[in-house]
Design a protein that fits this description.
Layout lengths: L1 H4 L6 H19 L11
């Protein structure tokens, strides 16, 4: 992914991993997969 957009988007190679991690974390929370110590409020 980063090689495709390296010349087009500024800092695509720097923020791609962080953005993907935030997306996975958001999907995990939205799906109520909170882990072994998660509290459903």
């Amino acid at each position: 992914m980063t090689s495709k957009y390296r010349g087009m988007l500024a800092a695509a190679d720097v923020f791609t991993v962080d953005d993907a991690a935030a997306l996975v974390e958001s999907l995990r929370i939205d799906s109520d997969v909170l882990g072994p110590f998660g509290i459903h409020a």
